[in-house]
# Entry
Amino acid sequence: MNMEDKLKKQYNGWKAAFWVLVIVLIGSLLTVVHLASAPVKTPAETTAPKASDTSLELVLNQKQVNALANSYIKKIQKKSKKPQYRFIVGNQYATVIGRAKFLGVNVQYAMNCIPVKTSEGNILLKAKGLAVGRLNLPIGFVMGYIKKNYQLPNWVYINQKKKTILLDLNKYTKNKAVHAQADEINLADGQFKFLITVPQDN
Amino acid sequence: MLRGKKGLLLLIGAVLAVAGGSGYWYHQQQSLSTTVQQTSQKDRVLKKKITLVAIGDSLTHGQGDDKNEQGYVGRIRKKLQKHYHNRVTTYNYGVTGDRSDQMLKRLNEQPEMRANLKKADVIVMTVGGNDLMQKLESNLLSNSTNKIESNIEQAGTTYQQKLNELLTAVRKQNATAPIFMYSIYDPVYTYFPDVSIINESVAKWNQITQQTVAQYGPSYFVDINHLMSYGQYKTAKQRQKLSQQAQKANSDQITQKQVIAIMNNDTHNLNNYISTEDNFHPNSKGYDQMTNALYKVMLQHDDWEYQQE
# Structure
């Protein structure tokens, strides 16, 4: 592999990583809130493959994460005039705010989470608050309700007792163009590191 | 000296006798005057023992009562005993989550419940909340207001039917004891004061309940809708402010900072009478309010406290 090829691969890797990150961070949260469909399997965190020479680190600050979120949401919501939801990464929480209809009336729902990295490089969202308008809802109850009534992707696990959502990045990106795992998530300092590994064909 | 001592004793005795006598007389007068006030014409004889049977859902069960005084049932017993100086025995047949048809089922399946109902001097009920909740829940995220409205309309007809069946079964056991029927209320009014579907369906439900129970007299409707739904926001001006705040919290402009502020306030309910545990049932203050409302209507119609001639 010559230098040029390597660069090209790195560039493609970065591009793919960009989407992986965006989809994982935002898509998953919204998936959980918006209740997408896919079969649910028994929760067992997927282990991370070892970092290799095709791995690269992606470092983002708070502004970049938010910019990514905005552009992603704008893109997927192009058809509707107003954004139906927003994703905001602050110093304390990552927050999803969205609009929904409640008995025929527009309301805003919001969920505050603290994302943390697991030892396997997956992301664990610790839900800290759930509200519709000014009304706080019991997180465990709503999570249990979602888990019972909706099918989630097989890499998203809800634990209503612990009020957590596990995003199994290793599982999600196992057969994707690149493998992604979380390396550091630091809301307070606004530092987000991901390890992207491009699979080698040999 | 001896005479003096005797005189003193006599004096004390006389004073005691007068005091005791007047105390007795005073007491007689008091109870006489209350009796007179209530009867207006003829003298009535107070029952020594009262049996109160409460049938209903979580509100009868006392869900959310942070003082563990059995909701309105425990409270009304104390109030009645204090007022009439007789013994009140209560039977609480409140089961959380029960719809009207489930209460009927219990009545049909439980001989003990029927037996106690039979000997009841007074019946108190909370019905309908779960009948409506179930319908609202299944329409929660629906887009079409028209569709929800027609669903509620239909559910109202079903509810009325079921309520008729329940009340018929109650009257089959006990044809004479007055039924005090509570209204339902909107537990999230302070959060969503402008969701007309809720306001309208709660009003509709209460109308159905009031009209239906009237056909199973003697019966009295205890309307707690505004009392419990509005909570401490008693004036139109206060409720207007609630409405503005709700609009702000449900606008697209809400910030993460505002969201965090809302969530930091999750141990409070905007309505002082609603439990913070589930933001739905009354708390101890709420049950106090419910009890006061019931007590007021009970005192206005208290024939059941007296022996029938």
